[in-house]
Amino acid sequence: MKHFIIIDMQNDFCTGSLANPDAVAIIPRIKEELQKAKDNKYNIIFTKDTHYDNYLETGEGKYLPVKHCIAGTPGHDIVPELDTSYPSIIICKDHFGYSHWDSYIKPSDEVIMCGTCTDICVVSNALAIKAIENVDVTILSDCCAGLSKEKHEAALEVMRSCQCKVI
User: pTM to 2 decimals?
Assistant: First the structure.
């Protein structure tokens, strides 16, 4: 099976409390790739970073004390430019990486990934998926945004080192 996974393209990471102009800039390219994936009948998966009102009391909140992606707020929503209505799966994850990818992805599946932030959530999830036996993982580098250009490139290099195909 072929999967197209879009990591955390949410309002708070694009224009909200953790706004990143680089994340906004990749939206048109992701939209193009999403349409290709739909046309080719890929399994479409969106992840959503998901926190709650007690975020500042969590382990992550102690290191990043900026409320973001709070469930039920507009910041938690996927950016409106990306259509989630196609039979898509939306995974709400409360950590950088999702730990149950094997519920969706099986050995010998193919995965194409993109999203934000390259150096935190994209790399975390790519490596978790790559750990599933014989799964091919491709990262669309021009459809990813990091916290900085340097961190973006460093994360891409880590993924290459772990046998992800970075294009």
Answer: 0.96
